[in-house]
Structure to design on (297 residues):
């Protein structure tokens, strides 16, 4: 009688819940040598541009407001120096519609004894949704060609003109030009606005015409995927994150193998080896891609 009632109302004989697909792949879709931090540091420390007239590889960062461009610069500086470092002012404001960076700013990373590493990061005003707001695509085109001088305050209404003798560089050298263009995207943000996508498309087309290599960095991956937050080594095993990078690739046109997921230093007060390893592996690839381009100048 009891077994009949249990069967009638479900009891132990109710159908099992549907199986959920595991959130992680058994094998990573890309490899990271998680124990290779020191080897990566050696590559970075020994790196030199292939041409003498280029003292510094210039990495230009661009992307939507709040993507984490300045935080990425600080993450690279922290990983390279082996300690927390803030060389670019990040923005912790909850207002994600206005750019915190407003000028053309170049960041160097100290190597010791007064010297700096032979690569610099140029941070610019973020891309905002709508016309006459945020950095203009035309200004970034000029920056890529080396025409924008340090300290130029971006004007969302008008493009830098040759008549601005203080900030327009009429005769850029190979060292003034951008050697790699990096699109920084927040993996935890909603879809990119159409007007921002249009600006990004114009910037990418300008870089294409100049032959400048292009990659992307996806930030905040720990907020995007629980498994990555639990263990950073799951970054290339996360099914959700791979899907997200595929969406970025289809949206902005950069191949998935050129979109690098990264966790920026935020609340941590000390460096972590796994974070440093991931950041340094991204930096090494950027420097190699940029140097391939420098060799063609």
């Amino acid at each position: 009688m009891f077994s009949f009632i249990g069967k009638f109302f479900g009891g132990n004989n109710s159908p099992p819940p549907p199986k959920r697909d595991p959130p992680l792949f058994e094998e990573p879709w890309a490899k990271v040598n998680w124990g290779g931090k020191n080897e990566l540091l050696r590559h970075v420390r020994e790196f030199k541009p292939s041409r003498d007239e280029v003292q510094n590889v210039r990495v230009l960062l661009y992307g939507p407001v709040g993507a984490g461009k300045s935080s990425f610069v600080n993450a690279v500086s922290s990983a390279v120096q082996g300690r927390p470092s803030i060389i670019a002012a990040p923005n912790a404001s909850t207002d994600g519609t206005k750019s915190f960076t407003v000028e053309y700013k170049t960041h160097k990373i100290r190597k010791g004894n007064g010297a700096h590493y032979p690569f610099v990061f140029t941070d610019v005003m973020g891309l905002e949704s709508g016309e006459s707001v945020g950095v203009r695509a035309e200004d970034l085109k000029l920056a890529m060609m080396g025409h924008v001088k340090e300290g130029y305050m971006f004007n969302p209404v008008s493009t830098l003109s040759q008549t601005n003798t203080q900030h327009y560089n009429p005769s850029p050298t190979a060292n003034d030009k951008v050697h790699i263009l990096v699109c920084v995207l927040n993996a935890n943000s909603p879809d990119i606005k159409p007007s921002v996508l249009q600006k990004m498309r114009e910037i990418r087309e300008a870089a294409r015409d100049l032959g400048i290599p292009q990659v992307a960095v996806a930030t905040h991956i720990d907020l995007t995927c629980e498994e990555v937050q639990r263990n950073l080594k799951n970054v290339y095993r996360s099914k959700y994150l791979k899907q997200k990078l595929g969406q970025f690739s289809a949206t902005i046109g950069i191949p998935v193998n050129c979109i690098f997921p990264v966790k920026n230093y935020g609340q941590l007060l000390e460096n972590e080896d796994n974070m440093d390893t991931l950041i340094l592996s991204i930096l090494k690839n950027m420097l190699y891609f940029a140097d391939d381009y420098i060799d063609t100048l």
